[in-house]
Amino acid sequence: MDARRIGRTAAALAAVAVLATACGAQEPDPPEPEDPAAPEAFTTANVDAWLDATLPGMLEDSGVAGAAVAVVGDGQVLTTRGFGYADTASGAMVDPADTLFRPGSVSKVFTATAVMQLVESGDLDLDEDVSAYLDFEIDRNYPEDVTLRHLLTHTAGFEERIAGLIGVEGTEVDLRDSLATDPPEQVFRPGTTPSYSNYGNSLAGYIVERVSGVPFDDYIAEHLLRPLGMDSSSFEQPLPSDLADRMSSGYADSGGEAQPFEYVGTPPAGALSATADDMAQFMLAQLGTRSDGVELLSAATREEMFTPALESDSLAEFAGAQRMTLGWFQEDQNGHRIVGHGGDTNWFHSHLNLYPDDGAGIFVSFNSSGTEGYETLGLRADLMSGFADRYFPGETAAEAGGVGADGAEGSGVQGGEAEAEDVAGVYHASRGSQSTFLSALDVLNTTEVTALDDGRLYFPADPGTMEPSVFEPVGGGVWKEVGGDRTIAVRTEDGEVTGIVHDAAFTLLPLETERRIALPLLIASVAVLLLALLAWPTAALWRRLRRRPAPGPEGRRWRALVRIGAACSVLAIAGWVAIVLMAMSLQEPSAALIRGVQLLQLVGALGLIPAVVKGVGEIRRKAGWRAVTGTVVVFLALSVVADFAIEFHMLSPNITY
Which residue, among 295, 269, 149, has the nearest Cα to 217 in the 3D structure? Predict the structure, then answer.
């Protein structure tokens, strides 16, 4: 056991000891309902009992240092709780009233609320082209307007950008500059293809700044935070001194080192810092149930925010699945209307659910990623699902459709086998960088969809949950999760599947055959070039031992140039792997590094010329089939690497990502 593992174990044991002291020698079990289908009493005592029996074990099992939770209902704060550590080194525990967390993209709901305030006042129009409100031009690939409705529903068509998304202390944060300089390309027709976009939401935030005449974080402070008494919350980066000392540390896992405060490059999309107590006040305001009557929006505007914002005239078949409202995700469960939003920074992972018709809400934030990469995704889903099942149960999947939760006894749909076969295939996410070198991730981050014999679809790794899932057809291109409440929708054009929308703001796109085979061909080609590089000195040694003549001066020259091309191609691919890994971990590779790797890639591609000359020379002088075959194989390998580089924009002059 290494020192890191020992430290993690010690921290976990300490956490258990402290929590046991705080909660009693034994974690209380929540009382069982007399009727499993009946809701539990939605009271402070019952919710606290459920949280005490649920969260400590979650944190311990997942290697998460701490969490903050807020639950509201019946027009009041039922409970706000802190679990685990805000700082593992000092032993400071999470205090829901005092400890600030980073809700990440839950910030987008604040941005959407600000937009709707200005819509309500008549200063903004949801369906006006955004150019009417901006002081810079947006490059467009489609003639249709881009509207605030599109921005708030992630359907403006922008690809994703990673560069500058999150930085550390010393990072310059300039909202206009981050939006106007090297903006992402518009790759989808507006209003047609849900594709989650930090850029789009931040553009909406900048419009709030432009129209209101004050900086975005000042607008939020004046019009959202202060009216609600959210004195322990802020979009400022760095935080004001009176809040900075109360900020929870963020961790990779509970045994790791505390990480620096993160600077979000586009603040409207994720820069909020807030306590659980403050988030409770925000939930009550969104529900319109604050006892003091303070409202951020009118009841009509709140309802508009909670209603799906695009219909089939725009989304086509996609409108049949869960959709985006104006800033919220549809996350209905157990027959209850639920809107929600998740959020992640490098270290903080959060989720918020509101029940508009039931006057309830729950917010949770974790300050660690956990020991597994997607640990907190499951934690949040389990907590939200457990809350719904306990306090707002409804029809089970079996009662609703006769389908077992395990999917083993599905009824299927007559004729659904052919439909499922049409959908089966390999897909990539619409949320990506289609015009940059990060488009190479399309061949890595794929989703496989399999048609089952009974006409259902099987996802070995559902992109919404990272768990296996099964969906059955319900008609109109819509498929419902077996044993769950999620829906997906399949869009077809001329009999061909063009996309699968899932989780409201994400679309899976078919991966073309040539791209599907690109990675295996690249791996094989790099292997060939490596073998060739090793074979050439071996062949020279063999000729010397057998006292065979070496190629003439001209042959040696072309052979050396081919070797240089092969070596540069291999080094370039290794360089791109390093660059992509850095970018995905939000460590910005320098422009010099990217340009250097591009130079290697170019020299490698130019190696095709001496390979042709070398091959022709070998044929002319009848060098033998082995020599000619070897040169042809190396030429093909160089061609594959060069084609991959061109296809995935690795030689593009624009290195923005």
Answer: 269
Report, in this order, helix, strand and coil percent for the chain, each rounded to 5: 45, 15, 40
Residue 4 has pLDDT above 80, yes or no: no
Mind spelling out the 3-state secondary structure of 310-377?
CCHHHHHHHHHCCEECCCCEECCECCECCEEEEEECCCCEEEEEEECCCCEEEEEEECECCCCCCHHH
| Torsion angles phi and psi, residue 83, rounded to 5 | -130, 140
Give residue 401's pLDDT band: very low, low, confident or very high (50, 70, 90): very low
Report the SS3 class of residue 479.
strand
* Phi then psi dihedrals of residue 512, to 5 deg: -60, 150
Asked whether the predicted pLDDT for residue 184 surpasses 60, the reply is yes
Which amino acid is located at 188 in the chain?
F
- The continuous run of DSSP H or E covering 48 comes out as helix 44-62
Regarding pTM above 0.70, the answer is yes
Second-level CATH architecture of 407-513: Beta Barrel (2.40)
- For the chain, the domains span 104-272+283-358, 407-513, 517-647
Tokens 């062949």, located at residue:
539
Q: Which helix (H) or strand (E) holds 614?
A: helix 608-620
Residue 412 pLDDT exceeds 70: no
108-122, 258-272, 407-421, 584-598: the lowest-pLDDT one: 407-421
The dihedrals phi and psi of 496, each to the nearest 5 degrees, come to -110, 135
User: By the 8 A CB rule, do 290 and 75 touch?
Assistant: yes
- pLDDT tens per residue, range 626-642: 778 888 999 999 999 99
> Residue 504 and residue 582: Cα distance in Å, rounded?
29
Answer for the pair 332, 322: CB distance below 8 angstroms, yes or no. yes
Phi-psi map region of 586: left, alpha, beta (phi>0 left; psi -120 to 50 alpha): left
pLDDT at 224 > cutoff 80:
yes
Q: Which residues of 390-424 are buried (b: 16+ CB within 10 A; e: fewer)?
A: bbbbbebbeeeeebeeebeebebbeebbebbeebe
State the average pLDDT over residues 362-380: 89
Mean per-residue pLDDT of the chain: 89
Start-to-end Cα distance in the chain: 39
CB burial string 618-634: b at 16+ within 10 A, e below:
beeeebeeebbebbeeb
Ramachandran angles phi, psi of 67, nearest 5°: -150, 155
Question: Residues 350, 363: contact at Cβ < 8 Å?
Answer: yes
Cis peptide before 238 (omega within 30 of 0): yes
| Rg of the chain over all Cα atoms, to the nearest angstrom | 28
* Largest separation between any pair of C-alpha atoms in the chain: 98
pLDDT tens per residue across span 474-509: 999 999 999 999 999 999 999 899 999 999 999 999
Distance CA 625, CA 629 (A): 6
Superfamily name and number for 104-272+283-358: DD-peptidase/beta-lactamase superfamily (3.40.710.10)
Check: CB of residue 171 under 8 Å from CB of residue 130.
Answer: no
Residues in the chain: 657
